Structure prediction request, 203 residues.
Amino acid sequence: MSVKQLSLKDAQAANINVISGTSKGNQAVHDLVTAYRANRRTGSANTKTRGEVRGSGKKIYKQKGTGGARHGARSAPIFVGGGVVFGPKPRDYSKKVTKSTRKLALQKALGEKIAAGEVASVASFAIAEVKTKSFVSAVAEITDASKVLIIAQSFDDKTYLSGRNVQHVQLITADEVNIEQILHATAVIVVEDAYETLAKRTA
Prediction:
C-alpha cells in the first residue's frame, strides 16, 4: 500500500484550502466545537417550583404562639421535599453556526493537522474480506496511532463491516467529516478519492 505524508503543498495542489501557522480560524474552531457539544445536550433537566409540588396547601401550623418562624405550606423551598428556587427547566441549548464559520473552521483544523505531520494520503483503502484482523493489519501498515480517522469518498460494505468493532479507528466519508472528529484523531488518513469533496467544502 502506497502511503505518503500529506503536506501543505500537496493540499494546495489538490485545491484543498487550509490555514496554518496563524491565529486566523481559532475562534471559528472554538465556536463550532462549542456548537457541536451544545447541540448534543438534551436540555431535559427539570425541577418543580413550590407551586408545582404535589401536596396540601394548608398552613402547616398556626401563625402565632408556637415560638417558631411563621410558615405557610410545606412546599416552601426551605423544607425537604419542597419546591426548588430558580431550578433548571427544559430548554433548547442548540447553537447555530454560519456556513462561512464552518468552512473556516474546517480549513483551520485540516491545516493544523497537515502542518503537524499527522495526515497521511493513500490511493485507496479497502478490505477484500469481512475480517477485523485484516482491517487492523491494513491500518497498521499506514500508522500505529492510537486514534485514527480514515476519510474517503465512500467505503464498501466489506470495509465497513471489518472495521466496525475496531474502537481506535473511525471511518467517515468526506461529506460527513467534521472538525471535532479531525481534532480528536491523532492520525488522519485521507484516501485520494476524497480530495475533490474536501476541496469543495473548503473552497
Notes: The longest strand covers residues 148-152.
